[in-house]
């Protein structure tokens, strides 16, 4: 009902703006209206088709190379949001600082729909080409923004609901944009919050390296937030401010123009202790709690106290998995291909990296390729390389291809079940002959790599249904490791305890209350380790040192399965969901009730297909 009213309001605003030429102030958010004005002033016409100029495959590869650091630094957040996106039929997108889409992960079905309106890697989503959209408008407005349905400038984008936040570097430079996009019929009310939090983590991590020779000041009014991603950070080289995060500037009422201009001594009174958490008083008389780390002393302390970066959680392996790892290492050393199978988030990639680290090839590269993430048209040139001038847009000096980059090391083909059939034959030949023929070339080049593959799909079934070649299957699956889903772990409490320590819970002086631990252990974690680690990280951010973390901090859908719902709750489901997945499930249940249980109609009203709705409802049924 509420969304119908919002929709009508936007339609009225559009009519006034586009047909009557008046400003519908108050009917849409001010940043949206500003964006419509900018687009109209630039001569964009809402009834035209947006101008899309996708990059060629080699250009996209170059773009990836140029943005390597950004892609690496955002990886943990992309992985965490990807799990959320898969469960909510949406996608997570990373762009460069001009809005060029670098990566898109999440729900494959929605990715297909998004691709039809050119929301895909290699397309620039800047406002001037694509009109009002979360990515482009966040870049212009330099702040997080949600753009929903008809708030988009161009008509075809009405199917989208998007939330984006710009990523700022330590010197205020725009580095990229993180975005979550889904279908406009399912309102992802938490998407903007999730994206903002993720960007805060990314921006905070940008301060971990590169300032070893500087004095770094970390502070907050709340002492407990010092040392977390919510702290304010100011960096001084020879007493001069050279880098900062937005919170640091905001607390002192400064902006980026203060860089290189302002001195530490102008901002703060002499701190009482260097290195220790103490009182900091600004020259204007405001008090903060914080810590100043001088250059030499900081580099020593950083090793001792810096929280582990999120990508580096020490994996938890049960006894059986440890034994499987030892066997897999021996097999890979003997050049026997190993296939790792497990549900999403069960740790296939983590396991593969451990195999590499323990193998005789550890000093050589592990080249990991996600076969599902590579656009189909790119896989061939990416894997096998191409000769100079092999096709229009090919790089002048050609490209050696990923198979050759793995020479001497290990080739890890992740999501191998998603490799298109046409390329499976070519891959098989390369694996059998240990030779690669680049596109546009005729001379085979010898390669030497060990092969690891992973998939969450039932490959044997794909073989039976004819979508995966049996000869390739037998080639890659000479030894299969099955990673168990979390719900099958015998002692989940011990596992959660260990991960909590790994994530820094004990170091931060926070424990999980017995009821919290019980509920976490009772949950069946469909997103496996990825979901569990993400939830524990969120809980850690909410925790108060010295106080056991109460079960009320848990997301609504965790640990409630074992509690009978009250009659009242069954009749009037309260809007308490505070995760995207819970919200989506709520929306699905509501749609189903509104259509008297007719799945097709409910699915249509949500803008998803029947199978997605069935799948999600079945998944829900399995949970409760
Ligand atoms: N054994 C483990 N112990 C602790 N954390 C783990 C473990 N395995 C995985 N994780 C966490 O889960 C996240 C997902 O792991 P990984 O990418 O290896 O899963 P995956 O099975 O390859 O998932 P997908 O099929 O979706 O690609 C990792 O980033 C890591 O934080």
Automatic annotation (TrEMBL):
<dbReference type="InterPro" id="IPR025662">
    <property type="entry name" value="Sigma_54_int_dom_ATP-bd_1"/>
</dbReference>
<dbReference type="InterPro" id="IPR003018">
    <property type="entry name" value="GAF"/>
</dbReference>
<dbReference type="InterPro" id="IPR025943">
    <property type="entry name" value="Sigma_54_int_dom_ATP-bd_2"/>
</dbReference>
<protein>
    <submittedName>
        <fullName>Transcriptional regulator of acetoin/glycerol metabolism</fullName>
    </submittedName>
</protein>
<dbReference type="InterPro" id="IPR002197">
    <property type="entry name" value="HTH_Fis"/>
</dbReference>
<dbReference type="InterPro" id="IPR027417">
    <property type="entry name" value="P-loop_NTPase"/>
</dbReference>
<keyword id="KW-0805">Transcription regulation</keyword>
<dbReference type="InterPro" id="IPR029016">
    <property type="entry name" value="GAF-like_dom_sf"/>
</dbReference>
<keyword id="KW-0547">Nucleotide-binding</keyword>
<dbReference type="Pfam" id="PF02954">
    <property type="entry name" value="HTH_8"/>
</dbReference>
<dbReference type="Pfam" id="PF01590">
    <property type="entry name" value="GAF"/>
</dbReference>
<dbReference type="InterPro" id="IPR009057">
    <property type="entry name" value="Homeodomain-like_sf"/>
</dbReference>
<keyword id="KW-0010">Activator</keyword>
<dbReference type="InterPro" id="IPR002078">
    <property type="entry name" value="Sigma_54_int"/>
</dbReference>
<keyword id="KW-0804">Transcription</keyword>
<dbReference type="Pfam" id="PF25601">
    <property type="entry name" value="AAA_lid_14"/>
</dbReference>
<dbReference type="Pfam" id="PF00158">
    <property type="entry name" value="Sigma54_activat"/>
</dbReference>
<keyword id="KW-0067">ATP-binding</keyword>
<dbReference type="InterPro" id="IPR003593">
    <property type="entry name" value="AAA+_ATPase"/>
</dbReference>
<keyword id="KW-0902">Two-component regulatory system</keyword>
<dbReference type="InterPro" id="IPR058031">
    <property type="entry name" value="AAA_lid_NorR"/>
</dbReference>
<feature type="domain" description="Sigma-54 factor interaction">
    <location>
        <begin position="319"/>
        <end position="541"/>
    </location>
</feature>
<keyword id="KW-0238">DNA-binding</keyword>
């Amino acid at each position: 009902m509420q969304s119908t009213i919002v929709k009508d309001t936007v339609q009225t605003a559009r009519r006034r703006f586009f047909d009557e030429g008046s400003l519908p102030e108050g009917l849409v958010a001010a940043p949206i209206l500003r964006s419509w004005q900018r687009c109209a002033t630039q001569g964009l016409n809402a009834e035209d088709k947006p101008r899309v100029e996708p990059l060629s495959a080699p250009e996209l590869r170059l773009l990836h190379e140029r943005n390597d650091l950004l892609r690496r630094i955002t990886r943990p957040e992309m992985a965490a949001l990807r799990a959320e996106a898969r469960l909510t039929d949406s996608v997570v997108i990373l762009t460069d600082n001009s809005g060029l889409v670098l990566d898109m992960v999440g729900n494959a079905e929605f990715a297909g729909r998004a691709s039809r309106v050119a929301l895909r890697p290699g397309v620039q989503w800047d406002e001037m080409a694509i009109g009002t959209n979360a990515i482009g408008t966040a870049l212009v407005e330099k702040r997080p923004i949600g753009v929903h349905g008809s708030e988009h400038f161009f008509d075809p984008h009405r199917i989208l609901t998007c939330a984006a936040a710009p990523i700022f570097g330590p010197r205020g430079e725009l580095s990229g944009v993180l975005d979550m996009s889904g279908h406009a019929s399912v309102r992802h009310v938490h998407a903007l919050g999730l994206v903002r939090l993720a960007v805060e983590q990314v921006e905070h991590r940008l301060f971990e390296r590169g300032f070893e020779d500087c004095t770094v000041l970390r502070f907050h009014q709340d002492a407990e937030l010092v040392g977390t991603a919510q702290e304010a950070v100011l960096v001084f080289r020879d007493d001069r401010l050279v880098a900062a995060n937005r919170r640091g500037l905001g607390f002192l009422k400064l902006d980026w123009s203060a860089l290189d201009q302002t001195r530490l001594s102008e901002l703060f009174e002499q701190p009482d202790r260097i290195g220790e958490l103490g009182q900091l008083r600004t020259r204007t008389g405001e008090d903060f709690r914080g810590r100043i780390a001088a250059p030499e002393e900081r580099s020593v302390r950083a090793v001792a106290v810096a929280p582990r970066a999120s990508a580096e959680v020490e994996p938890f392996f049960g006894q059986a998995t440890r034994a499987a790892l030892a066997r897999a290492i021996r097999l890979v050393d003997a050049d026997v291909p190993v296939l790792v199978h497990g549900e999403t988030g069960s740790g296939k990639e983590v396991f593969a990296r451990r195999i590499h680290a323990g193998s005789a090839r550890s000093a050589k590269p592990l080249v990991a390729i996600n076969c599902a993430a590579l656009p189909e048209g790119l896989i061939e040139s990416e894997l096998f390389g191409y000769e100079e001038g092999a096709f229009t847009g090919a790089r002048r000096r050609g490209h050696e291809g990923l198979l050759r980059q793995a020479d001497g090391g290990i080739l890890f083909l992740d999501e191998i079940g998603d490799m298109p059939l046409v390329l499976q034959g070519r891959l098989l030949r390369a694996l059998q002959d240990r030779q690669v023929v680049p596109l546009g070339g005729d001379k085979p080049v010898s390669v030497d790599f060990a092969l690891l593959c992973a998939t969450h799909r039932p490959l044997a079934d794909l073989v039976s249904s004819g979508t995966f070649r049996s000869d390739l299957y037998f080639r890659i699956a000479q030894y299969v490791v099955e990673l168990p889903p979390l719900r099958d772990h015998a002692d989940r409490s011990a596992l959660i305890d260990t991960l909590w320590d790994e994530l820094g819970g004990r170091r931060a002086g926070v424990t999980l209350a017995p009821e919290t631990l019980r509920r976490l252990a009772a949950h069946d974690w469909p997103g496996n380790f990825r979901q569990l680690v993400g939830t524990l990280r969120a809980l850690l951010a909410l925790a108060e040192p010295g106080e056991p973390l109460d079960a009320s901090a848990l997301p609504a859908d965790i640990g409630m399965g074992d509690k009978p719902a009250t009659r009242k709750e069954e009749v009037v489901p309260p809007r308490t969901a505070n995760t995207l997945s819970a919200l989506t499930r709520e929306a699905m249940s509501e749609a189903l009730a509104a259509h008297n249980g007719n799945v097709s109609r409910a699915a249509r009203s949500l803008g998803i297909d029947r199978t997605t709705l069935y799948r999600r409802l079945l998944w829900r049924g399995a949970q409760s």
